[in-house]
Amino acid sequence: RGFPRRPERKPFFARCSLCPWPVTSRQSPHRALAPSASPTRPSPAALKPRKNHTHQTHSPGTDTTMPASIAVFLCLLSVANAAAMDPAERETLFLVMDAVSSDRDWRSESPDPCGAPWPGLECKPAPGTAAPLHVTRLDFGVEPNPSCKDAATFPPQVLTLPRLQSLFFVDCFNNPAAVTALVLPSANLSSSTLQQLSIRANPSLSGVMPPQLVRLRSLQVLTISQNGLVRGEIPQGIGELKSLVHLDLSYNSLSGPVPSRISELKGLVGLDLSYNALSGPIPSRIGDLNQLQKLDLSSNNLTGGIPDTVANLTSLTFLALSNNGLNGHFPPDLSGLRNLQYLIMDNNPMDVPLPSELGSLARLQELRLAGSGYSGPIPAAFGQLASLTTLSLEDNNLTGEIPAGLSRLHRIYHLNLSNNGLGGAVPFDGAFLRRLGRNLDLSGNSGLCLDVVRDVGVGVGACHGGGGGDGSLARDSVSSAARGVMARGSTDSFRFRLLGPVCVVVICIFLSSE
């Protein structure tokens, strides 16, 4: 599981314009050969003596290169100057490899890692210079990048690489018998050039959320996710990371409040704090994040109402607040959420009437409000949600009839209104029922009925008389249409029973005539 071996290493002279042919790192300069030459036998052209004309005129295609030994020497000198790493930086990289990889041969196999980089390693010179090369990207854990050994430990010194811009540890620390701590160095972080840090899917990574994170001022993307042993509070100083565009701290064991200073991250586009143990209210100034497109605070222990300022998130397309303790207040004006496409708020004890304002969210595609104690009727305005594909209102306290406008939602393919107190005739025609099929669930509403018998399995019986009537269920659960089918079957059976004697009489008459 160590670093992958690479028989196809890049030639050291690939960037050298002075070389007429590449010379690999394993060749001696005295054995450098042209591409047409054999590695053991020189070509005849190479052995043929050259004529020395002082005033020779060269036509196109004529060899004008300097002697190979001089060219190789100049290339070696050029590449040595351009590709050499700083010794201290190279040693830091080797320490990182020692902590993560089981391969112990990299010091001898790759004495100059930036000269022949492997997958997952990128090197570049500092801006405005040609030398030396610096490590700018390290990516561990997912092929073709280097995999991690069973006893891999998190190497804090990796964040002291002076020009590092991107760092990834994905599915790297996953041995339950080798738990490693997430610890960052305290020095040299404020001047860090790191722009992207992703530490994801490491079940054996432990420790508190490092407070030193707030000193990585160049960070644009911070992902510390799916590391179940990472705990503690989100640092209040998170507001110092003014360059952040995406912040993902989901699927950890974080506790405490959502920091109020998170509203200072004005450029934030994505915020995901889901599946933690965060508590307290949603910060009232969350609406200051006017660039935010995704907000996921689901599966925490958040309480209180939904702040009115949420309606200021005019760029928001995805809002998930499910599986919390949110209750009571719902913003009275949602017109600012004109770009919202997904609203997921299942399993919160809201205990309020279902807000009719939700019907103004014209771009809404999924609306999930199950198990949240909503009461009253389903607003007729929901019939205006022309883009809606999923509506989940099950396990609430809804009453009244199903709005007829829902039958005109031509894009909907999943509708669950089960386990409420709805009543009356279901307003869906046969085409609607067939289109949704098993994706329609109306069960658990004792007052609902269908005006005709349809084999669609929606959990609703037939109305009295087959025409709706008062909407009450027929006690025998059989409609007049079904009785008609049974009557026709009885008549056919009677006719079949008479057919036998008639045939016998006909046969007897035929035989007597013979």
Automatic annotation (TrEMBL):
UniProt subcellular location: Cell membrane
Ranges of Low complexity composition bias in the record: 31-47
GO terms of biological process kind: response to other organism
SUPFAM superfamilies per UniProt: L domain-like
Cross-referenced Pfam families: LRR_1, LRR_8
Primary localisation category: membrane
Sequence segments annotated as region (Disordered): 20-64
UniProt keyword annotations, A-Z: Cell membrane, Leucine-rich repeat, Membrane, Repeat, Signal
GO CC terms in record: plasma membrane
Region forming the signal peptide: none
Highest taxon in the source lineage: Eukaryota
The keyword Protein transport belongs to this UniProt entry's keyword annotation: no
InterPro entries: At_inactive_RLKs, Leu-rich_rpt, Leu-rich_rpt_typical-subtyp, LRR_dom_sf
Keyword Repeat tagged: yes
Protein name: Leucine-rich repeat-containing N-terminal plant-type domain-containing protein
Species this protein is from: Aegilops tauschii subsp. strangulata
